[in-house]
Amino acid sequence: LTSVMALALVLSLGACSGDCEEILPSEDEELETDEDEGYEYLPETCPAHQYSNEYSVLEEDDRYHYQTCTLCGYVKKGVHKVAEAVEDQETASCSYCGKDGLNIAGIEYELYYDEDDEENESATPLGYYVSKYDMDLDARDLYIPASFNGTPVVALGKRGAGANAGPFANTTDNSAYAYTYTALQFLGLPDSIIEINTYCFSRACSLRYINIPASVTTINNFAFNICYNLREVTFEEGSQLTSLGTNIFSSCYSLESVVLPEGIDSVPNSCFDKCYNLRFVDIPEGVTKTVNSCFSSCSCLEALKIPSTLTTFSQSGLFNSCLSLHTIYYGGDEDCWNTNISGLYESLGASADLIFDADRYYYSETAAEGCWHYVNGVITLW
User: Fold this and answer.
1) Residue 4, SS3?
2) Residue pLDDT, tens place only, 111-139
3) Helix-strand-coil percent breakdown of the chain, rounded to 5?
4) What secondary structure does DSSP assign to 228-241, as a single string?
5) Parallel, antiparallel, or unpaired for β 61-68 and 56-58?
6) Helix (H, G, I), strand (E, B), or coil: what is residue 267?
């Protein structure tokens, strides 16, 4: 599922029936929003997309480039990537479509080592990590280069950093309630990044859009915690993500839908806690458990895709206050549900009826009543 596809499913769910909360800290000046006009549509079924080598860029939203499938016309949306940068360089070009003028200014780098080699002065570094960003700059878009002075950039933030210590967090006010408002709304990441570390973007309240490249294997605790205006998080196709920390998207009040990538085995503790406007989450196949409070206080959550591999629901506050939940898309058939899920009623505690009373649709690759399948990655009822 791409962000376009997830949006199509969210729009199909209709207005939220719950008592949703709107708790968005506002700035003095209302920031503009961008719409990808002409690209929000469901493509026709295509056996295998074959994309042209030509890229297009929309004038009204030049943060992305687009490729068109030569077979069905489906439009693939991609984020600009910067291959390399050198000292004092402020702008660069996309290594795919050639668009120039991409902002890379204000970034500071430090050497990044394997966790076992951090105290070894003779160890060879893995590359650079982004240690700091100049919050006083007025750029709305920032692109992290894949390499700096010939050395790869492999991480965002320092491993094990504390609250307010991330490169995009508030560094002038170390109080527990410090919020960071800057011009920065959009962040484009390169294919060299493998780790996004603790509190990296915590309280970065102006951040609205971020794309997680397929190269990322680890997102650590509180990485995007309290990003009030974060609206869109996309994971690139072929994601290698295997490790998610706790509270990654907690208190991201503007987030509406998330499609988690295959490769993870659990939805961690408080992952989406207090995401008041979250309406849809696609939990991928391979996930075997959901952990305490991962959807707690998601009062607008309407639909959830549960994988056939899930065998464990934690009880503590898992779906607390998810009173709008009315649709379950199950990744297996009815027999699989009866085997893996039916016996978990008691473990869900007060949340049990929310799951078992919801409209339920089973996965089927052939047309069948009460079943669903993917059409170009979009959940579609037969």
Assistant:
1) helix
2) 999 887 777 777 899 999 999 998 888 88
3) 10, 25, 65
4) TT--EEEE-TT---
5) antiparallel
6) strand
DSSP labels for 8-73? Answer: HHHHHT-S--S---------SSPPP----TT--SPPPP-SS--B-S--EEETTEEEEEEEEBTTT-
Residue 298 backbone dihedrals phi, psi, to 5 degrees: -85, 75
The model's pLDDT over 166-176, given as tens digits with 9 standing for 90+, comes to 888 755 555 54
Higher pLDDT, 45 or 57: 57
Phi, psi at 147, each rounded to 5°: -145, 155
Those residues with Cβ within 8 angstroms of residue 271's Cβ, 6 or more apart along the chain or in another chain: 244, 246, 247, 248, 249, 250, 291, 294, 295
CB 10 within 8 A of CB 42: no
Task: Say how many C-beta atoms besides its own lie within 10 A of residue 161's C-beta.
Answer: 19
CB 320 within 8 A of CB 298: no
Please list the residues that pair with 195 across neighbouring strands: 155, 218
Residues in the chain: 382
What the block records as the tokens of 340 is 């893996």
Alpha-carbon distance 256 to 50, whole Å? 30
pLDDT tens, 49-86? Answer: 889 889 999 888 899 999 998 988 888 889 999 999 99
Distance spanning both ends of the chain, measured CA to CA: 18
| The residue to which tokens 């603790």 are assigned | 198
Please say whether the beta carbons of 36 and 63 come within 8 A: no
Check pLDDT > 50 for residue 305: yes
CA–CA distance, 298 with 147 (Å, rounded to integer): 39
Q: What is the pLDDT of residue 181?
A: 63
Any idea what DSSP says for residue 206? T
